[in-house]
Amino acid sequence: MKRIGKFISIISLLLCFYGQKSGAANHSTEQVQPDSIELRLKEIYTKREVMIPMRDGIKLYTAVYEPRDTGKHHPILMHRSPYSCPPYGEGFDRHFKTNLKNYIENRYIIVFQDVRGRHMSEGEFVQVRPLNKNKQSNKDIDEATDTYDTIEWLIHNTYNNGNVGTWGISYDGFYATMTASSNHPALKAVSPQAPVTDWFRGDDRHHNGAFTFLQTTNFLPRLEGRNMGKGVMGQIVKNDVYTDFLALGTFKDADDIVADTTRTLWNDIKNHPNFDEFWKERDARTSCYNLKPAIMVVGGVYDSEDCYGAWNLYKAIKEQSPETDLYLTFGPWWHGAWTVRSFQGFGNMYFGKSTSAYYMDEIEYPFFRYFLEGEGEKPNQHVNVFYTGENEWKTYDEWPAQGMTPIPYYIHADGSVSTQAPAEKKSYTEYISDMSRPVPYTATPTLHRTKEFMVDDQRFATSRPDVITFMTEPLTDTLTLAGPIEVELMAAISSTDADFMVKVIDVYPEGFQYPKEAKEYLKSDYPMSGYQHMVRGELFRGRFREGFDNPKPFKPEKITPVNYTLYDVAHTFLPGHRLMIQIQSSWFPIIDRNPQKFIDTYHCTVEDFVMKQNIKIFHQKGAATRVILPVVKK
User: Fold this and answer.
1) Can you tell me the distance from the alpha carbon of 561 to that of 542, in angstroms, rounded to the nearest whole number?
2) Using one digit for the tens of pLDDT, what is the confidence trace for 66-77?
3) Which of 135, 196, 523, 571 has the largest count of CB atoms under 10 Å?
């Protein structure tokens, strides 16, 4: 989880802050020198650094920015993080960013806190600390109790109006979820944004039980352990991530470099290869019962890190805490892009408008304004979702949208996709999965994990013999998808384990071009004619087909169902476009290579691999491979 978009320059902040009224569209060109910025912030706010005592005696570092204006009592907006709250000491320049412009302008008390055991706070840090549902004494603490105690102190020690809100992105979004479960009576509004929710089934560390090799090797050693602060990527990447992670080998080879002997999450990962109690108690959804504050979950459909967490946290609260005043917003964003006010697109995708400015001014701020200031109207639409393809916001009362109909789309021997089930008695497409040359995650060599790979052109994969492709004829009408995509594969493999990746792709028509303004914004003249836009793609580790806590080997050559879910989408295929389905068995180095053998993937070496195996995907009567699309009719 990179802190993408986490901070902006103070110049950018003040251009937004002083150049705009709340919700206004004009952008000031006023030039402000950095030294005057510091002075102007100090004219508006004071800063206190306090060590707030928790119920067990531990004290947490908290930076409290308070408006000098005491003409009225102010709402509190709080943010808790394991990533630090600099600058420590004097200075205002670090956490004041684009998405706080409205709150600074309306003189909120802004609070940042180092969570327990991190940076300036006392105590022991525990990764995604589980909610303690059996508290017996003041020694029984968790993130909910720490938040409760912090709010209690703030209510009695600041010039506030008695209303507290909180927000956080990514790991910080996990702490926002835990804040909601504190149910402090002053806590009125919470916004978990791309929240870490389940680190085994979908967020950050694993996707569908498969280890996120590149991301986690980059992230975790920098966060804790003997490599904290510097990480190990400099020891691994000399050319590009595909070449060098392939040369590195397996998790075990990376583990030899990390070489942590203390309790770290890296070590926990290798010691908990399946969805056991360690992971189950860290599923944030177990805390989502009887939540009192209003909650707005925010996510990006192109977030490679915590898209799963946002969709599924919303669904859990909706089911488990039905009385909660619950809201959902999803836009066409990478991880944290909703904090970038000028965002109109990325990679080769252009959305035609600043979706982030609209979100900040028309969705997020009105949510907090109503619940914390008691001003404005209560948001009347509980779901705001941006549909890519048609590039429009749509509102609903709930998600998935009413009227969504699951419709099966089948693959066929002739490479087509249709709603008709195959009639052949024996029919399959076969490919060789070769772990000496796994399918790369992007066509272009990179030095790090890009954010653009989530929308990259898939023509590079179509040309590979280990990627099988199926496609419709050009559509004569719109095809709108709104919800999760169910994958039902019928497969046979020659060994005992395999990965399966299914992509749903929008193929652009011949001659498609962006308008001039899109090319200028994207700074690109990429050939969009025939572009293969990955709408959604996710890999699934086949051993978990009967449950993430129940791994099973395959029986070689036996036709076996492999069913899993692709995270929700909100996309419209326009007339003239085609629907494409791709299937492959690697996605490297986003995901580690499957040894293609039912062995422990965290302790094996390349020498243990079945390097090549045959994989058959069936499209026949009684064994039909299909994807079930969440179709919304006009």
Assistant:
1) 10
2) 999 999 999 999
3) 196
